């Protein structure tokens, strides 16, 4: 009979969320826990995304845990290798790796009411846990469109988040599908190498100039040795991003910021036809805001052709756009994002009656404060629904959730609660409030279709208020909102 391990807390995922949760557990005096990771090492999305040019689009000073500020970032917008190294360093400095189990994939997590435990089945055995923390995150499973003929394409095919570094792109004919954050970063990197690059753009994106620069050794010395300097920098960048965030709630402001985007495009792209194809027809901020200084120039090069159309099918080594345009290519790269609102974890987490999160949600994820779902006691979703913003760091969201999570965990482990479950009416009231507040934001009224909207057309992704409001509200555990669940 396979062994069963009993633990107080089980954390799923060893990315930024899982590492942060583990550190907070240790700082809270909780050591009976394990972090399960299906991959062979930690890092999450910053382990998986290794495409050329991969970088953060939030200022570096904001992109760190508050308990582990990093004065060593070498750029204002730090690149993927440094972020991955930072996560590894934080984990090691806090003794987290000893609690990690790599190569362990969760296949099912089921609440057992009779025992008030989560029964978690994995590829290496079963765990019983009082608390379940799901830290897989939304930027995890790549989304690849189902296209006729794709399976028969004779060349190399891969998603940007699963980059094939063994494929030599020099002299190759390459098609890139999608123009989101990853494409804006890697297209300028591969453009000089390839013989031809065909970019299939379903929707034009707003791309603003990126205020990036190298952080000198002298600047880093100052940040390292005068902590007040780093705190001041973090505050200035936070206030700047929050000022921008006001525009997400008052779209008329972002329509003024669009002028910068239009000027940026005009200065980089002189060809009127190409410029028109690259000009969005919706309000800035309706989709994820993109930053780049070299994306537009790369699209003007002689070996690049922009196809302002979705991809319709694959015919041998020919990719065919919805408008009938065709291109013969050797390599096909999808920059088509992730399964943000239909996260695979939703089908694996089951309540006491055997109904999954996906069954409850029916395509529209909902949680209380983005963290707990009624009917799923002692379970916490990190970077869950209705917490995304267009202007703040995921670390701010994550740490607010961990404040809430740790308070709830202590109720169970130290204060005698058998289990903690959010009241359904509290969850419904919160989500109704979120939906009302979203109506006036650029996310809902900007005139675009984005990954913020789920299959039912509901915005299940965004937080409609400020980061300060998020910290105060999400980070506060009010016992009246919850009940002990047998």
What's the layout of helices and strands?
Elements: E1 4-12, H1 16-27, E2 33-37, H2 45-48, H3 80-93, E3 100-102, E4 106-112, E5 117-122, E6 125-134, E7 156-159, E8 173-177, H4 181-190, E9 196-200, E10 207-208, H5 217-225, H6 227-249, H7 251-268, H8 272-277, E11 290-291, H9 295-299, E12 304-307, E13 311-315, E14 318-321, E15 326-328, E16 331-334, E17 349-350, H10 357-361, E18 379-381, H11 394-413, E19 421-422, H12 424-438, H13 442-445, H14 467-474, E20 482-483
Parallel strand pairs: 1-2, 1-6, 2-3, 4-17, 6-18, 7-16, 8-9, 8-16, 9-12, 10-11
Antiparallel strand pairs: 4-5, 5-6, 13-14, 14-15, 19-20
Helix pairs in contact: 1-11, 5-6, 6-7, 11-14
Largest sheet composition: 8 strands, mixed
Global morphology = globular
Rg, rounded, reads: 23 Å
Number of helices: 14
Total domains? 2
Could you give the distance between the termini?
Answer: 28 Å
Q: Which CATH C-level class of the largest domain is it?
A: Alpha Beta
Q: Which strand-content bin applies to the residues?
A: 15-25%
Give the CATH H-level superfamily of the largest domain. FAD/NAD(P)-binding domain
Number of strands: 20
Low-confidence stretches: none
Q: Average pLDDT value?
A: 95
* SSE class: alpha/beta
CATH topology of the largest domain: FAD/NAD(P)-binding domain
Give the helix level as a range of percent: 25-40%
Q: Would you identify the CATH architecture of the largest domain?
A: 3-Layer(bba) Sandwich
């Amino acid at each position: 009979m396979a062994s069963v391990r009993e633990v107080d807390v089980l954390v799923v995922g060893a990315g930024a969320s899982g590492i942060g949760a583990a550190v907070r557990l240790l700082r809270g005096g909780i050591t009976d826990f394990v972090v399960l990771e299906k991959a062979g090492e930690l890092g999450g999305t910053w382990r998986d995304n290794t495409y050329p040019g991969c970088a953060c689009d939030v200022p570096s000073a904001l992109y760190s845990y508050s308990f582990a500020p990093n004065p060593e970032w070498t750029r204002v917008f730090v690149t993927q290798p440094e972020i991955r190294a930072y996560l590894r360093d934080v984990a090691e400095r806090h003794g987290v790796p000893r609690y990690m189990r790599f190569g362990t994939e969760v296949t099912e997590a089921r609440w057992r009411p009779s025992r008030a435990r989560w029964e978690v089945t994995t590829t290496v055995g079963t765990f019983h846990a009082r608390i379940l923390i799901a830290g897989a995150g939304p930027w995890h499973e790549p989304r690849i469109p189902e296209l006729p003929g794709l399976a028969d394409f004779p060349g190399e095919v891969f998603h940007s988040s699963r980059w094939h570094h063994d494929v030599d792109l020099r002299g190759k004919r390459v098609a890139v599908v999608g123009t989101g954050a990853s494409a804006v970063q890697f297209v300028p990197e591969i453009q000089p190498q390839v013989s031809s690059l065909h970019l299939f753009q379903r929707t034009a994106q707003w791309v603003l100039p990126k205020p990036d620069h190298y952080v000198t050794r002298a600047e880093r010395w100052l940040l390292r040795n005068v902590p007040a300097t780093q705190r001041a920098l973090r505050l200035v960048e936070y206030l700047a991003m929050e000022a921008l965030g006001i525009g997400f709630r008052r779209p008329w402001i972002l329509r003024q910021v669009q002028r910068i985007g239009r000027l940026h495009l005009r200065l980089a792209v002189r060809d009127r036809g190409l410029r028109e194809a690259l000009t969005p027809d919706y309000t800035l901020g309706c989709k994820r805001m993109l930053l780049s200084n070299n994306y537009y120039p790369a699209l003007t090069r002689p070996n690049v052709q922009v196809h302002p159309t979705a991809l319709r099918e694959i015919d041998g080594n020919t990719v065919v756009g919805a408008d009938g345009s065709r291109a013969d290519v050797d390599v096909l790269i999808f920059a088509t994002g992730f399964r943000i609102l239909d996260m695979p974890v939703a089908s694996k987490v089951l309540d006491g009656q055997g109904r999954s999160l996906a069954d409850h949600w029916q395509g529209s994820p909902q949680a209380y404060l983005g963290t707990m779902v009624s009917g799923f006691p002692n379970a916490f979703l990190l970077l869950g629904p209705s917490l995304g913003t267009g202007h703040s760091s995921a670390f701010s969201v994550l740490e607010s959730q961990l404040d809430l999570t740790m308070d709830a965990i202590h109720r169970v482990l130290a204060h005698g609660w058998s289990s903690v479950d959010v009241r359904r009416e509290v969850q419904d009231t919160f989500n109704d409030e979120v939906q009302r507040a979203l109506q006036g934001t650029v996310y809902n009224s900007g005139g675009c279709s984005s990954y913020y909207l789920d299959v039912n057309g509901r915005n299940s992704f965004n937080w409609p208020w400020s980061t300060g409001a998020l910290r105060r509200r999400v980070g506060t555990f009010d016992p009246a909102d919850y009940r002990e669940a047998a």
